[in-house]
Amino acid sequence: MAVIANPDAALQQRDPGPSRSGKDGLWSQIKKHRWNYVFVAPMVVLLVMFTIWPIVASWAYGFFDWDGFGPLEDFIGLDNYREAAGDPAFWRAFGNTFWFAAASLFVQAPLALLFALLLNNPRLFGRNVYRVLIFIPVVSTTAVVGLVFSVLLDTNRGPINVVLTQLGLDPVNFLGDSTTALATVIAVETWRGLGITMIYWLAALQTIPAELYEAAKIDGAGKWRMFRSITVPLLAPFAAIILLLTFITSFNAFDIVQTMTAGGPNGASDIVQTYIFRYAFAPTQFIPRFGFASAAALLFGMVVMVITLVQILVVRRARRRAAGLEAAR
Amino acid sequence: MIQNHPVTRRRALGLLGAATTATALAACGRERPDNEPTAGGSTSGSSAAGSVRLALGAPNPDYEAFLTEQVGIFNQSYPDVEVELLFYPPPEYANAINLAFTSGEGPDVYRLTGPSPATNMVNSYRNDWLQPLTPFITDEFKARAFEPGTWDNPAISGLYVGEDVYGLPFESMRYTQLRILYCNRQLLADAGFDAPPASWGELREAAAAITGSADGAYGFGISGQNTVVTVDAMQNVAGPGMAGIAPINYTNGTAGASHESYVSVVDLISGLNADGYITPGFESWDAQRPIQEFALGTLGMYVGANFHAARIRETNPDLEFDMAIIPVPDSGRGGYQRVTGLNQPYWGMAKTAQAPEAAWALMDFMSTPEFQSAAYSALALIPALTDALDGVEISEDTQRLLEIMDESIRTAPNVLENGLDADQLLSAATGAAPTPNATELYTRSITEGADYAGPAAEFDAAFDTVIDETVTKLQADGLDVDRADLAFPDWDPLEGYAG
């Protein structure tokens, strides 16, 4: 292996350093890294076209009474925002969206961890088969999952209600009752997304060296103690990322809601995405309201951003406090 | 010459790409030259030449096969006209047309109807997409068997904006708006009924009897996601015909959600649900589900559209059913199912059409009894030309549909009669209607048993205020609108509106 005796000197030799003129410096930097820019450029162009531009454009659309057709002419200031903020249906959809998020964090993620712990056991017979079975819903088309569950849960002839009836119980109107529709869709979505969260946890679990468990076992530690003192502390750094990913994924429930209930009955399972979709793309009685839909989307984004910021501040303060206590010890 | 272009991802991306580049090019002049079409009208086979791009949202693949075949026939008379057919799935149609016009690649002739009102004749006119057809229309053309009054009564014709014609019909307007009570003959007979119910009282009795007499069958069905179809159809026979999320009573121009006709029909359907005569789980049914349930033989009656009969027969050819007129209130008929014009403007010619003569030749061809007769054979739709079915062997279902159309549909006022600004008032006020809207209120009442009359009255008060505010706003914007634009005091809901 070649060893560079003085790496700084080698760097200085290669890098001409900033020139006297800043312009030349920038140009020489660009020239030096030109192939990097060339390779990155297509992705940047696509990002700008399909991510940045739609986001920025939707900010502008929110200030117009615009149907998505023709020029932006009717500037109405904050009217769309006021209307969305004053619409109880928007806030109900907003609340339902966070029920999805809460279920993903407090039900799906722990359940997935449980399955991951079970399926991480090398002595478990057929564990790869179980892993595949749990992962299959993730790669299934969501619309198909939604339709299949609509059939399974049908009040009149659905197999689940047939079984309930044969057991002497009353059939349950899973998707048609305002009190059960949201919970039902959340349960299906939790089941559907379980596999991917389980894979995250499995990946994290497999970073924990087996030697630690062996050493703990020699020291006489039981399973619970090993979980508490080895697994949990070593999973903790991954948990923040996994929970964040699960939280973000929970905002993609549009297709399952649209196929199972379309937000009904009476808006009971409506989420912000279906609410926006109805105004922008599927109005049945009026011209699309792209401006209003954009305002609703932005309002939702802003509230989520505020909540996230508060969350970051709280976590940071808690960490500082914990660090302070540690230092005091 | 025919070129078929089903919409593929590649084509959609192509259009998107075109949108980004062609905006600049559009300024350079894809505008049609100012050569006005020859007033000679109906183009002779030899004189028309050029290419014509025809776009439509096709509800099913049969349209593609039918139009492809017909273009072949058209080309026998017009060999120099090259027709390119552009088919889009209906949900994507409005966006595709908008994108096409924005990018300067608009079709030459296109379908004005679709699931979104964005491409309808008035909105297309507002977007400056359409050119008037009046210069093309000859006496010979007018002499064809269009609905009487089509050319001499612009107020109710349905094809006019102002004094010019901007659309041509294809399907019968009354056919497209028709609502029917589908009844399972066997279930009705088993429940002791030898004919479909004619009144709401009979409907309730039949629903109760069917639910009680057959295991697993229910008397009545309704889509919980689409209650508007059933409620509006039944309201229309109980009072002045109204429709939609923010109904307006055109006899006096006021909000109509709390009108007695709405309240009574909501009470009727809520009662059917409360008594267990509606199939459980209907609250989450989409618009297709009643068709499936009915075809399975587990649903006694439901209100559906014209095309359901063919769907039901396709799904279950052995099912015996009746198509009946929507039952009327026990106190008697209060109105008819409404159409807001004699014709449904189906085809429009783009302002940017490169070869207007050739485009008109195609539109003219599609307005012949031969074409429309072939459309009946291929697509089972009832055409606009009243003689298109002469000499054609029609099915029993079609015969029944024609009878129901005659008995149960009448023309109602169209706000457009009072001008484009009045139509904009209606559109803007409806778009700004308070929430929850009337449809949401009665859906809640039907599915959950919530009170309707009280909240509907509150909705009407709020919506009347919205209408007044919209009038004020539009007047400030310089539009010639007035609250009276929404009122047609001379209209008798028990008679056809004559303009």
What does this structure look like?
Chain A has 14 helices and no strands. Helix content of chain A is 71%, strand content 0%. Chain A is an all-alpha fold and 329 residues long. Chain A is globular and about 75 Å long. Chain A has helices at 7-14, 22-32, 34-61, 79-85, 88-119, 127-139, 142-152, 159-166, 181-205, 210-218, 223-249, 254-260, 272-280, 290-328. Chain A has a domain at 95-271: MetI-like fold (Orthogonal Bundle), CATH 1.10.3720.10. The longest helix of chain B has 24 residues, at 453-476. By secondary structure, chain B is of the alpha/beta class. Chain B has 19 helices and 16 strands. Chain B has 2 domains: 2-166 and 343-408, D-Maltodextrin-Binding Protein, domain 2 (3-Layer(aba) Sandwich); 175-341 and 412-499, Periplasmic binding protein-like II (D-Maltodextrin-Binding Protein, domain 2, 3-Layer(aba) Sandwich), CATH 3.40.190. At the A-B interface, loops of A face helix 3, helix 17 and helix 18 of B.
Features of the shown structure:
heterodimer; A: 329 residues; mainly alpha; MetI-like fold; globular; B: 499 residues; alpha/beta; D-Maltodextrin-Binding Protein, domain 2; six-stranded mixed sheet; four-stranded mixed sheet; 19 helices; 14% strand; disordered N terminus
Beta strand % of chain A: under 5%
CATH superfamily of the largest domain in chain B: Periplasmic binding protein-like II
Q: Give the biggest beta sheet of chain B.
A: 6 strands, mixed
Approximately how much helix is present in the residues of chain A? Answer: over 70%
* Strand order within the widest beta sheet of chain B: 1-3-2-4-15-7
Number of strands of chain A: 0
- Tell me, briefly, the overall form of chain A: globular
The class by helix and strand makeup of chain B works out as alpha/beta
Helix-strand pattern of chain A, N to C? HHHHHHHHHHHHHH
The total of helices of chain A stands at: 14
- Low confidence ranges of chain B: 1-41
CATH-level-2 architecture of the largest domain in chain B: 3-Layer(aba) Sandwich
